[in-house]
Description:
Catalytic activity: Exonucleolytic cleavage of poly(A) to 5'-AMP
CATH architecture of the largest domain: Alpha-Beta Complex
CATH topology of the largest domain: Cathepsin B, Chain A
InterPro entries: PAN2 (IPR030843), PAN2-PAN3_catalytic_subunit (IPR050785), PAN2_N (IPR048841), PAN2_UCH_dom (IPR028881), Papain-like_cys_pep_sf (IPR038765), Ribonucl_H (IPR013520), RNaseH-like_sf (IPR012337), RNaseH_sf (IPR036397)
Enzyme class: hydrolase
CATH class of the largest domain: Alpha Beta
Shape: globular
Number of strands: 53
Radius of gyration: 38 Å
Pfam families: PAN2_N, RNase_T, UCH_1
Organism: Salmo trutta (Brown trout)
Distance between the termini: 115 Å
Helix content: 10-25%
Largest sheet: 9 strands, antiparallel
Amino acid sequence: MMNFDGLDPGMEPGMEASMDPWLNSVLLQGVELNPDGLTVAVPESVHMMEGMFSELHSVHAEVGVPVTATPFDLQEELLWMGNHRGHGMSFFGPKMSRYSSFQAHSTDDIRQIQSMETGILFLSKSNLKCQTRGGLVMFDYLMEEGADMHSLLMTENNTMLMGGLQNYVLEFDLNTVQQTQKFTVEAPGVAIMRQSNRFLFCGNTSGKVSLCDLRTFKLEHEFDAFSGSLSDFDVHGNLLAACGFSSRGMNELACDRFLMVFDLRMMRAVTPLQVHVDPLFLHFIPTYTSRLATISQTGQCQFCEPTGLANLADVFHVNTVGQLLMSFDVSSSKQALAFGDPGGGVHLWSDAPEVSYNVYSRESEFAMPCLVDSLPQLDWSRDLLPLSLIPMPFTSSEPLLSDWVTTQATPSPRRAPPVDPEILRTMKTVGFIGYAPNPRTPPRNQVPYKIKEVELDFDNYNQGVPESPIGRDEEPHLYMVPTKYRKVTIKYSKLGLEDFDFKHYNRTLFAGLEPHIPNAYCNCMIQVKIGNVWCCISCLACELGFLFHMLHLSRGDPCQASNFLRAFRTIPEASALGLILADSDEQTGKARLGRLIQSWNRFILTQLHQETQEQEGPQAYRGTSRESVIGSICLEQSTQAWCENCEKYQPTVQTRNIRCLPLPSAAFLMYCEVNSVKEAEFWKAQAEYAFIKAKKKEEIEPPKPKEPPQPHEWCLEEELANTEGLTFDTRVEDLRHIWIPLTLKMSISKSQGLEISSWPEGEELSSTEEAEGASLYDLVVTVPHVLDARTGGNLVAHIKVGETYHIRKEGVTHQQWYLFNDFLTEPIDKAEAAQFDVNWKLPAILYYAKRNYHSKYDLHIKNPIKASVLLTESSLARKQRKSHATFIPLMVSEMHQAGDLVGLDAEFVTLNQEEAELHSDGTKSTIKPSQMSVARITCVRGQGPNDGVPFIDDYISTQEQVVDYLTQYSGIKPGDLDAKISSKHLTTLKSTYLKLRFLIDTGVRFVGHGLQKDFRVGLTFVLKDQVVDTVYLFHMPRKRIISLRFLAWYFLDLNIQGETHDSIEDARTALALYRKYLELSRGGGNYEVRKVLKGLYEKGRKLDWKVPDCDTDGQGSPKSMKLVLH
């Protein structure tokens, strides 16, 4: 009731008419009244501007697992999600309530999801699985080996296409669940597929979009969209829009902010569309207009017209809480957008509060509601909630935990968990307060009640190895592996390996081995066997001898074992024994390296024995203690034998007796497998017992005074101790993880048979013991398996280098233990070589060698290569004719002498593609370079009447698959290396290697362009004094490397390498350039050379380092213009 002025003085005063809802109807908008006239609360509604997208709902599917696919169902109102662990999940309606959840693939990530009438297709790297929307498996199809699928596309008649990073596309029939056709495509394959009523569009990672026929898959047209890589593209009507990356310098890619738009009617590009975000995904959203949605990886979304200018006001942002977007899709009704991020979040955007995914959707089938009454919910947030409300079975006989009196209970404090190393690494301190960004690695508001002690899981310790090696070393393992034992990797830059400092890892003169070659896990065992120099012409033994020769000549620079490992991979027995690892298993650490290196050692010793035809010696046996050694050598075996008296088979025990010690090889080895927790506990117990025993002995016996060493030994030990921080006194603390003996005494007695006992390291046998046939064996090699969950582990070798090899490499009489970890070499103490902390360092192989065995064998290096290797030899090619010979072999009178010049050029082919990671900022990091194989070697005479005539022009036959012949740069064409169809002078790598080795041992000087890189890739090792590289003769410090073609044009007025490279032409040109350099040096010395080089670089910058096609524009070479050099 309202109170007007003067009506009733006792009533409340009235309000202004503008504020009275009964008089001002504007105030009643949005208010509902019940029949009694009272206001009723109105539920809030979501107000959206028409045509503008905004976030409708977000859920977390699986926290911390990256989402890889978020497609909409084309038949029902479902949004599907696939993640990196192969899990599939669906959400119903705009509220995104969970509909179904199941595991689609066991290990691989889900790369694409496609809905059908009857089920859902899940595509992984090498598998296609069809499941119902509830998770029931309909079929599971496994691709052929080597497949790397990325996309699928539904076509008519219940068929589909599948493509990926391989040279074929599969057509698959969903009715018969069989492959129907296989279309061949060019490298690098098909990563994205789209379809229109005219063409099938295929996009690859090289930045091209191919237009193919819908039925025959024949290439009709091709658009070269980007110079770097293609990110995404979409087709609508007569327009094709694409986004991607462009090349920026050497091996760098940058996201291109220009969208390439193509007209499909005229088959040409139209005006590019510039956007304000870095586009990673794009999709047409044709409603009233042909709008185009472009999405950046940081979550920025922009809508624009493909024929107009982009408006900055149309930029929106997806709230991913700092995460990067990994997937994007648009519903068939164009009303909803879906995004996925690495944190497991799925985001739904819409332009209306009531959204429908499809124009006509069928009803989804839901489970029947539970008819059983559920128990009442308990509010666990209440601190005083009695636990007696939970029903429990009545137990009268057993005492309860609550029956204990308080005095008998002791409070146990909860140990705080360790701080995340990422937080400590990024923490900044101000005063006494430290702050760091949240890495979001631990679960939120979850702390374990008790911190578990880390135990070694020998079956699953390496299952969490990241796929990418980038950033593996950032977080240390709980058991800190010392830096020198960790898996070493080569950091590749723009210059490749030119600026990588190998000397930082190796300050000795012993050469290491590079680890990026396939099956390089055996590098440690190659270092072990370098003491044996093989002089046979057999395949594997000879390749091993070539490698040992390279390591012997190298003065600390690392070498590549590519030729030996290539010969090792071609042996069928090695593949049958499982010794050939796949690249994925080697990089992710899935292989059991400890057991694998033992199998490799057995195989290589057997193979070398067969090839060198040595007399059979005693076998190598496994064991880790005195009993296991004797038990493995003197075997007792039960078998069935025929008994003459009983005239039937009877069980018989056969015992092997040893008649002589291992004298022919003067060494024996033991395999130590620690593959279970029980075996690790055994090693721990033995080491702890040996430590306690040594500690008690030290307490009882006074320490012996240290004897003063010899003068030459004192200097070396003092120098090593100062530089490396070594200790040459064996303390008791150094023996904590040591129990294997450093010296063993072995003897044979008639009564007890083989006797093995530990022996003090420095003591010798008495004359009586030597007369009885006893021998001492010293520990010379230990090969441990280093466990590291971040990298999958690696193998290293501890080698005791004796006096003979020290004299050969360093010129000193000394014995020292060294650690060999690929290209990392470091001197260590003998105690460290025998230490095995099974928490991170497991023993694999132990070598014991007979004391003073060097004095009983001839250890001088033999060189069996003779001059006959340079004479005429037959070709492996069947179609090669003598009239087609491109070289004239040397005559006996033309044999080279020391100091003679030889022009050399080598051409290579690629065996596999380079592996690199593309970052969100467009930069690229090289993980593993492409593996090169020598394909052609040419040697040209450098003096004499036949100056410039080649005497070696060998094409190298290969049994491995060649990925790229690099014809533009090498001149090698497909078929040139095939003995069945080649018309070239084809030979083996070993035959050509012998020719080069003879020339190197003779002392000739090789002249070529880029020889140091060629030799390093895998030819051989040549001393620097024997190499004349024109790359560095005509090079100024901190300037670019100049190509051979530009140098030939500038100094010699020659136009070479026009269409392809010719090895003979390049070798001759290098010789001519060297003679030009000598001419300049004799004319004016170094000053004149620097002056000419300055003019060379100025000319190159003006021409952009490109050789002009003709000289009509006045850009002729100095020689053609008759410039006089003063």
